[in-house]
Structures are given as structure tokens and as C-alpha cells.
Design brief:
heterodimer; A: alpha+beta; Immunoglobulin-like; 3 domains; 7 helices; 12 strands; B: mainly alpha; Cytochrome C Oxidase, Chain A; three-stranded antiparallel sheet; 21 helices
Chain lengths: ~350, ~675
């Protein structure tokens, strides 16, 4: 077992496990938190939390079905247990019970089951209808493309000059439906931000559509939900829902190209162009690679490596030099850098705000 | 039926014979002669050439259990890796190969073959026949299964086992993203295994409609037979889809066919349709015969017949019929139009109804019976409980919008393990306890048996129930690790502990099997006082099964005369019956009413099934290695072996029984 890196939110397995067997019972009775989803203990918990109209009806459907079907399960298992243990008159040995009889069990049991299933079908069709399309026209259209193993996000705009590309972090205005066009650049992935909506596959050659809406400002975690290879486990994203004003500010900032390089960053800039620019793009420079995330506004993001690490200068340099350690199989190689190269590159990267 | 049967009459007068009716006392010289006719040569000759359905059945069972153990060990490796967050016990590639091989092994090499094992062993005994309709085909089916299983593990030691999941979605399994031999092994192995399953299924279907003892009308066959028949018919429709899918994929990978390649106008979604049109019926293929086992064996311990025989038999077939119309529920998240999703979602709800029929029939049988708490009964009763839980979680996944959340999470992993372990492994282990005395002549230990049940039952629920919660907490499937911030640490640790407890339970069971083989108490012919025909013959049964072909008069031949409120009717005759001993012979009967129609001349033991199986499998090895000369050589060898096998022999000419005259004498026996 590899020892984990300090500062990295990993920990060597069993040692640090907090053993909270009661967690389910507690979370069942917990009040709905009003705070953002990223503060949840279980950020992908769609069963107890939902923050938008594409998810809430599904959550309620989940509650009803779980309650109803758990009750039925308990009743039927109880019948089974009673059938097993109930007292019986003693019979002569060797005598076999009559074959007839008992059909009433089948009629009643199947009859009630059919009735309940029919009711559930009507209910789920109503929910399907409710979440299939947003009630108002989407405020925004994004194209999200799945790559091995990260997400490219393209903000559409009628004015081509106002379109821009970012990665792994989606910003949306709070309280408005957002239309997502889902594509894949390689294999099948699935876009899933559980507390905002169910999952949809991203299939090469197809453009699937889905919509999300967050009614509470906050950060919502998503994860690839279709097995896509070596780093499938490390393909996360975040949705940041913010006020219209903050969202506009963020969009304005994202549309800008990178700041021109000043004197002391030139070494780092050259290094970036040589070693990173083939795969990564920084708009406004010669780096126009399309194989990895667009890094024009790298430092505006909360996390790096598709959600794997928090975005600190320390993590960034660890990621660059040891990508294959943190994310085995990733397309990003571990890049050997001397100390002076590393500090020059770090210095340049720190300008990508 | 009788009219059709009669038209075959007198086509070839030389081949007409009316068999004598008589008795063969145990230990008589005439019985010894029968024994000599049917016995298999000792040593390796017999080992490679036997076509005895009982030997083949046991081979299926042993091989399938070996695969179960291998698949189980793979699962334990996965559970160690997932015991805590950010573990590095396995690399992602190792994890992906292990979870893929775990699924492939359990689903294809254990779950279905183990049921074929029971059915191969039991069908002729249950039906009152001396063998399956095509004994050599039966042997071929086993050999190809064995070779296909070995084939699929061929690249495992090289660290290049299949790694794209048992569902093997393109393009990840295609030539661009999976360049090693991993997927070629899987694709060719699946086509090869498909041959085994197909010939086995044909054999079951023909056996049912041809080989039942006189008087065993279609409404008297045990539910296990209904289950296996339904599964076999389904296989004949489902297997072509998956064989085609894997063959197209192999063409994509090896000759650039581009069926699934977007860059060349191929369509990745096509794979999902082809795979699940097979995949969903397959789920029922691996559970319906197991449900049949319970429907037949549970009543033995309840001391009464099954409640609602007809309803359960019809529910079995209804499940499969509907099972062909629900494959899209594996694809709810693929972006299909909501109208299509609604239809398939509703159909997936409806498929629960026949399952409800079976569940209430079992509970009623227990309720109205007087249960005897022997080990097999514990497994069957435990199965009913697990079936209920797995069924309910299945209903949740049928609700389309909810499935958009549940799909591809551990909730599905929990559901499918409740279904596959609950409805397959528990009945199968119970069935081993139940039929072990028949297979070996010895009883298994009750004490170890109860230990094994409770350890398995508790371990199973401790291991797999928390997976529901992991799924509701958003844990996706097939991730090799997870960070602590997701809140999945505890459920995963509990699951890992539970899975090891379950493994201990399986180990206790295996120890029980080994110890009981040598030390178990002698069983006698019918230790459970069970009602069906297999218990009428000695344990283990003689090579010829039945000295004389019995005549059946009810569903419960060995309980006749003891059932409360039973109407007077003619009795099943086990001692006296048709004497068929001019070489290997058994009786062929009409499909519905089971009237005697023909004396079937059964083939002798032969090496040809082994050789055909071997050459066909080597042909696939040739394809894998791109050794075209070798492939052609093996194709020619297969044809040669097949020609020897099929060479017409005069002595295998079938004799009609002179049905018209015979029925005048004996036709009144069965209603």
C-alpha cells in the first residue's frame, strides 16, 4: 500500500476511518440544510438532498417508493416468518397435505401487488413528465464534452466573440434552467450531478441533452457515472451556482484572454509553451493544445485534475510532476522538472487567473 | 397428437416393435445385463467418451463451482481494495480486470452452467427417462463450456484479462481504446460459449417434448423442468444477439469493420441494444431454473405439494416473455425519447407481477404445510426472503426518473447481488444439500449445514445490504477507489467485512461437501421422503436410471395414496414397465400427452464430442493468434470429427412402438 501524500486529502485506508455506524439513522432525521452542497458529508447524496426542480420530484419519488416498498418488504417477510414458525396441529407421520387450497394467497397477494405497481407506474410517469423538460426557456446553453478523464465545458453565445471554453467547473446562475448538450470525445461517459439531476450518458457521435437548475447558491459535486477506463474513479466536476451578478462577473473574466507575460515570468512561459502547450490551451498565447483542459483561467478553479486535488500552488506542482501517481493511467504524464524549472513554471502558472 | 403420431406408423415396417412389459428385480441377471449395456468404460477412455447425463451433470456442477470460487476470490480482492478510501492495494488496471472477470465468471461461467448441471443430472430422472434426447450433444455442450471457460482466462496470467466490464461497452472495448488481446479473448470466448449454451438448450427443449415417461403429461412435469425449458427457449432467441454483437466487435477489432466506430459512421449505441436484448433475458435464464428448484424442493420439506402449480408454471413462462421486452431499462440514461422510456419502464413494472405469483405460492406452501427445518429448507426459505428484497429494489429501478439516479450506482450492485446470489446461489447451495444424497449416496452433515447457512445468510446481508445505502449516497459502480470526502467510508468497510463472512460461509459449505463425500451417513433411495421420480431410483442412480420405463399417473408419484383428500386414480407404476434392452434404448413419447410413440436407440459412448469440442475451441485459439493455417486445420478437423459422429448407423434406426395396437392395450392407463 502506498503511503499517502501529506496535504492531499487522501489518507491511508483503515487507520483514519471514522466509524459512524449510526450515520444513516442520523442523516435520516437530519433537517434539510440550507447551506451549499459542498459542505455536505455526502456530496453525491441524491436520496436526502436536492437543490433544483430537475432533482426534487425524483427525490420525493425515491422517498415514497423506499417507504412503500420497505413496508411491503417487511410485511411479506413477516408473513414468511409467521408461516415458518406458527404453531401447527400434529399430524400422523407420513401424511401429506392436500394439493388444493392456498390459491387465495396467490390471488390476493398478486392482486394487491398489481394494484400498487399500477399506482407507482402512474406516479413515476408523472415525475418523468415533470423533470423531462424545464418549465421556462433555458437561460444558458452549454456544451459539456467528456474526455478521458476530465470535462470540457463550452459556453455558447450568439456573439462568437463571447463564447469561451473552460474545464471541470461549471458556473450557472442560480434559479435558472441551464441546457446542457452532452458529447463525448472518446468513450462513453455519463454526466451526473446527483443533487441537481439524474445522469445522462455522453455517447460518441450523439448529442444528448439534459437540463439542470440550482435554486440555492452553492457548489455541487458531480462524477462520471459510466465506466470509462483507468481513471474513471477520478473524473469529477463541480457546478457552482451563483447570483446573476456574480455569474456575469465570472463570465466576463472567463472571456478574457491570458494576461501578457511580464519579464520575470518569461522563463516559465517558454517552459509552458515547450512542455505543456501541445496539450493545453492558454487563450492569447501560442499554447493551443486541445487534448487537455483549457488553462487560461486555471487559478479561478477550485480544484485541479478533474476534482482530484484542491487547487493550491503546492498541489499544482505535485500534480505536474507526479500526475501518474495521483491519477494512474491519466493522459497527463508525470513531468520531470528541475527545481529551477519547477519554480519558473509555478511562477508562470500563478499568472493564469 | 395421437393422430400425428399415428401417421408416422408403418413407414418402415422393419423398424416396428412392440416392447414387452415386465419387471426387472434388483440383483437379477437381467439387471446385470442392463448395467453392462449402459456402463461407461473404466479409466480415461470412459472419462473422455462418456455421454451419461449424470456424469456430465456432475462435471457441470463441479466446474461451475470451481469458477464460483475463482470469481469469489476475485470479489474479495475487490472488497479489500474498497475497504477504505484511497487504497492502493490494486492498481486501476488490476481492479478493472478483476471486476470484469468477476462478472464474466459469475454470470457466464457459474450462474448458468451450474443450473445446466442440475438440469442435466436431474431431467432424465425427473422425467422417467434413461438419458437426454441427444447424449453426445450433451457431452459436447460440457466440453465447449469447459474450454470456453479456460479460453476466457487464457490472458489472465499475462495481466491482460478482459477489462471493459462484462457489459463490454464500445468504444471503450473497441480497437482504439483497448489495444491488447484483452477484449479479443472475451469476444471469441463468448462466441465459443454461445455454441455450448445453444446446443445445450436445444437438447433440453427436445428432451422435454420427447423423453418423458408415459403418463407424464405436460401438466405433471416438475417446475424445475418448466424453468429450464423456459430458459432454454429464451437462450435460443437471446444467444444469437450476443454472439452477433461479440462477433461484430471482433470484426471491428481485427479487420476494421467499423460497426461501432463513430469516426466511420458506426454506432456505439447499437452495442448496448444488442447486448441488453440478450442481457436481460439472460438474467431470467440464470434465475428461473433456480426458482424451479425451490418450487420443487421446498414442498418436500413442507410436507405438502406446491400451492398453485399451474399459476407458478405459467408465471415462469410469463416472466420470460416479458423479459424480452424490458432490455431498455438497462439504457434509461442513454438519452432515448421519453415515450420509449415510459413504455419500457411500465413493462419493467409489469414483470414484477409473475414474480409476485411465485413468492405468494411459496409462502402459502410454507404456511399451509408443516415445515421440517433441514438445511436445504433453510436455504430455500432464506432464498424467499432475499427474493423479496431483491424484487423490491428492482421495482425501484423500473421507475425511469428514479433510475436516472440509481443506475450505475452501488444500489444496482446491491440489487443484482440480491437477485443473483439470492435467487441463484442460495437455491443452488440448498439444492446441493438436497440432491447430494442422490448424487453420492451419502447425506451431508446437518450441523455444518446449519452453520454454513447462517454464516452465509448473515454475511450476505451484512455485506450487500449496505451497498443499497452506498448507492443512495451516490457511490458509482466500477470505481477502483474513492476519496474520504464523499462519505462512503463506513458502508464500504461494513460491506467488505460482510463479504468475508459470506466467504467463510461458502467455505464451510465446501468443507461439508468434502467431508460428507467420505464420511456422510448412507442415504438410501429417498432420504427426504420426496415426491418426484429421481427419488424412486437408488442413490446414486444406476447408469440406466430406470430398469423399466415407469408409467406416471400424477405430479407426485412417490406421495400417491398418502395425500389428504386425494381422489382415487390409477397409480404410478414404477416396478413394472417397458423392457427396453436391445442395446441402449429408451422410450420416446408424444409432446403433450406423453403417449409412447417410439423406441429411441441411444448412442454409445464416443470420443467425438470431446474431439469436436477440442477442435472447435482450438479453432478459436487460432483466430485469437491470427494463425490462419492452424485455424483452417482445426476447422477441417472439426468437420472430420463431426462426420465420424454423424455417420449413419443402421442400429440407431428408431423403432415405432406400434402405438395404435399398444394403446388399445394400455392407452387407458393415463387420463
Amino acid at each position: 500500500m502506498k503511503a499517502s501524500e501529506s496535504g492531499f486529502d487522501s489518507r491511508s485506508a483503515i487507520r483514519n476511518l471514522r466509524f459512524r455506524i449510526t450515520f444513516l439513522a442520523l442523516s435520516m432525521i437530519a433537517a434539510r440544510p440550507s447551506e451549499a452542497a459542498d459542505t455536505l458529508d455526502t456530496p453525491l447524496n441524491y436520496f436526502l438532498y436536492s437543490y433544483g426542480p430537475a432533482a426534487t420530484p425524483i427525490m420525493h419519488l425515491g422517498w415514497l417508493m423506499t417507504a412503500l416498498l420497505s413496508a411491503i418488504t417487511l410485511i411479506v417477510i413477516l408473513l414468511l416468518v409467521i408461516a415458518l414458525v406458527r404453531k401447527r396441529s400434529s399430524a400422523a407421520p407420513g401424511v401429506i397435505g392436500a394439493e388444493s387450497g392456498g390459491l387465495r394467497w396467490v390471488y390476493i397477494g398478486t392482486g394487491i401487488s398489481t394494484f400498487i405497481l399500477a399506482g407507482l407506474t402512474v406516479y413515476f410517469l408523472a415525475v418523468l413528465n415533470a423533470v423531462a423538460k424545464p418549465t421556462e426557456t433555458p437561460a444558458l446553453t452549454l456544451t459539456v464534452t467528456g474526455y478521458d478523464w476530465w470535462w470540457s465545458i463550452e459556453y455558447e453565445h450568439a456573439d462568437p466573440a463571447k463564447r469561451f471554453v473552460t474545464a471541470n467547473e461549471i458556473h450557472i446562475p442560480v434559479g435558472r434552467p441551464v441546457l446542457l448538450k452532452l458529447k463525448s470525445a472518446d468513450v462513453i461517459h455519463a454526466f451526473w450531478v446527483p443533487v441537481l439531476a439524474g445522469k445522462t450518458q455522453m455517447i460518441p457521435g450523439l448529442v444528448n441533452q439534459k437540463w439542470i437548475q440550482a435554486d440555492v447558491p452553492g457548489i455541487y459535486v458531480g462524477q462520471c457515472a459510466q465506466f470509462c477506463g483507468a481513471a474513471h474513479a477520478h473524473m469529477n466536476l463541480e457546478v457552482v451556482a451563483e447570483s446573476d451578478r456574480d455569474f456575469e462577473k465570472w463570465q466576463e473574466a472567463q472571456r478574457r484572454t491570458a494576461f501578457p507575460v511580464s519579464g520575470h515570468n518569461e522563463h516559465g512561459y517558454k517552459l509552458f509553451m515547450d512542455r505543456c502547450g501541445g496539450c493545453h490551451a492558454v487563450r492569447g498565447t501560442e499554447a493551443e493544445g486541445l487534448h487537455g483542459p483549457d488553462l487560461t483561467h486555471l487559478n479561478s478553479r477550485r480544484r485541479i485534475a478533474a476534482g482530484l486535488l484542491t487547487n493550491t500552488p503546492d498541489h499544482l506542482m505535485k500534480w505536474i510532476t507526479r500526475a501518474q501517481y495521483f491519477k494512474p493511467g491519466a493522459r497527463m504524464p508525470s513531468i520531470a522538472l528541475s527545481d529551477s524549472e519547477a519554480s519558473a513554471l509555478a511562477s508562470y502558472l500563478s499568472t493564469l487567473n | 397428437m395421437a393422430a400425428t403420431d399415428a401417421t408416422q406408423h408403418r413407414i418402415e415396417p422393419l423398424l416396428e416393435r412392440i416392447p414387452e412389459v415386465g419387471r426387472i428385480p434388483a440383483g437379477s441377471a437381467i439387471e446385470a445385463r442392463l448395467e453392462r449395456i449402459w456402463e461407461t468404460a473404466p479409466g480415461w477412455r470412459g472419462w473422455l467418451s462418456t455421454v451419461d447425463h449424470k456424469t456430465i451433470g456432475v462435471r457441470y456442477l463441479v466446474t461451475a463451482f470451481l469458477f464460483l470460487v475463482i470469481g469469489g476470490i476475485e470479489a474479495l480482492f475487490l472488497r479489500i481494495q474498497l475497504a477504505g478510501p484511497d487504497m492502493a492495494f490494486l492498481t486501476p488496471e488490476q481492479y478493472n480486470q478483476l471486476f470484469t472477470m468477476h462478472g464474466v465468471t459469475m454470470i457466464f461461467l457459474y450462474a448458468s452452467p451450474v443450473l445446466s448441471g442440475f438440469s442435466n443430472y436431474l431431467w432424465p430422472l425427473l422425467l422417467g427417462s434413461r438419458d437426454m434426447a441427444f447424449p453426445r450433444l450433451n457431452a459436447l455442450s460440457y466440453w465447449i463450456f469447459l474450454f470456453a471457460g479456460l479460453f476466457m482466462y487464457i490472458s489472465f496470467p499475462l495481466g491482460q484479462a478482459p477489462n471493459a466490464g462484462w457489459f463490454n461497452y464500445v468504444p471503450f472495448s473497441g480497437p482504439v481504446y483497448n489495444t491488447g488481446p484483452n477484449i479479443d479473448v472475451f469476444a471469441l470466448g463468448m462466441v465459443l460459449l454461445g455454441i455450448s449454451t445453444t446446443v445445450g438448450s436445444i437438447n433440453f427443449v427436445v428432451t422435454l417434448f420427447r423423453m418423458r415417461a408415459p403418463g407424464m403429461t405436460i401438466n405433471r412435469v416438475p417446475i424445475l423442468v418448466w424453468g429450464t425449458l423456459t430458459a432454454s427457449v429464451a437462450n435460443l432467441f437471446a444467444i444469437p444477439a450476443v454472439s452477433l454483437a461479440f462477433f461484430l466487435l471482433w470484426l471491428d477489432r481485427q479487420i476494421g469493420a467499423h460497426f461501432f466506430d463513430v469516426a466511420n459512421n458506426g454506432q456505439p449505441l447499437l452495442w448496448q441494444h444488442l447486448f441488453w436484448i440478450f442481457g436481460h433475458p439472460w438474467v431470467y435464464v440464470v434465475v428461473l431454473p433456480a426458482m424451479g428448484i425451490v418450487s420443487d424442493a421446498l414442498p418436500t420439506f413442507c410436507r405438502r405439494p406446491l400451492v398453485g402449480y399451474t399459476a407458478v408454471a405459467l408465471a415462469t413462462m410469463a416472466t420470460m416473455l416479458l423479459g424480452f421486452g424490458v432490455w431498455v431499462h438497462h439504457m434509461f440514461a442513454t438519452g432515448l425519447p421519453t415515450v420509449a422510456l415510459s413504455i419500457f419502464g411500465a413493462a419493467s413494472m409489469v414483470i414484477s407481477i409473475p414474480s409476485a405469483v411465485a413468492v405468494f405460492a411459496w409462502i402459502a406452501t410454507i404456511w399451509l404445510g408443516k415445515p421440517v427445518f433441514k438445511t436445504p429448507f433453510l436455504f430455500f426459505a432464506g432464498f424467499v426472503a432475499l427474493f423479496i428484497i431483491g424484487g423490491m429494489s428492482g421495482v425501484m429501478t423500473a421507475a425511469v426518473p428514479l433510475d436516472w439516479q440509481l443506475n450505475e450506482t452501488y444500489f444496482i450492485v446491491a440489487h443484482l447481488h440480491y437477485v443473483l446470489l439470492g435467487i441463484n446461489v442460495f437455491p443452488v447451495v440448498g439444492a446441493i444439500y438436497y440432491w447430494f444424497p442422490k448424487f453420492t449416496g451419502r447425506m451431508m452433515s446437518e450441523k455444518l449445514g446449519k452453520w454454513s447457512f447462517w454464516t452465509m445468510f448473515i454475511g450476505f446481508n451484512a455485506g450487500f445490504f449496505p451497498m443499497h445505502i452506498a448507492g443512495l449516497l451516490g457511490m458509482p459502480r466500477r470505481i477502483y477507489t474513492y476519496p474520504s470526502r464523499m462519505g462512503w467510508d463506513e458502508v464500504n468497510l461494513i460491506t467488505t467485512v460482510g463479504s468475508f463472512i459470506f466467504a467463510v460461509g461458502v467455505l464451510i459449505f465446501l468443507v461439508n461437501v468434502v467431508l460428507s463425500l467420505k464420511r456422510g451417513a448412507w442415504a438410501g433411495a429417498n432420504p427426504w421422503d420426496a415426491p418426484t421420480l429421481e427419488w424412486a431410483v437408488s442413490s446414486p442412480p444406476p447408469a440406466y436410471n430406470f430398469a423399466t420405463i415407469p408409467t406416471i399417473a400424477s405430479r407426485h408419484p412417490l406421495w400417491e395414496g398418502r395425500i389428504e383428500g386425494e381422489r382415487e386414480h390409477s397409480r404410478t407404476r414404477l416396478e413394472e414397465g417397458y423392457l427396453l434392452m436391445r442395446g441402449r434404448e429408451t422410450l420416446g413419447t408424444s409432446p403433450i400427452d406423453a403417449k409412447p410413440v417410439v423406441i429411441l436407440k441411444m448412442p454409445e459412448d464416443s470420443y467425438t464430442p470431446f474431439l469436436v469440442g477440442l477442435f472447435v475451441s482450438l479453432l478459436f485459439v487460432g483466430l485469437l493468434l491470427h494463425s490462419w493455417t492452424f485455424t483452417a486445420l482445426m476447422a477441417a478437423s472439426s468437420c472430420a470429427a463431426l462426420s465420424v459422429w454423424m455417420w449413419p448407423r443402421r442400429k440407431l434406426g428408431q423403432r415405432t412402438t406400434g402405438y395404435r395396437s399398444a394403446s388399445a392395450e394400455r392407452g387407458g392407463e393415463s387420463p
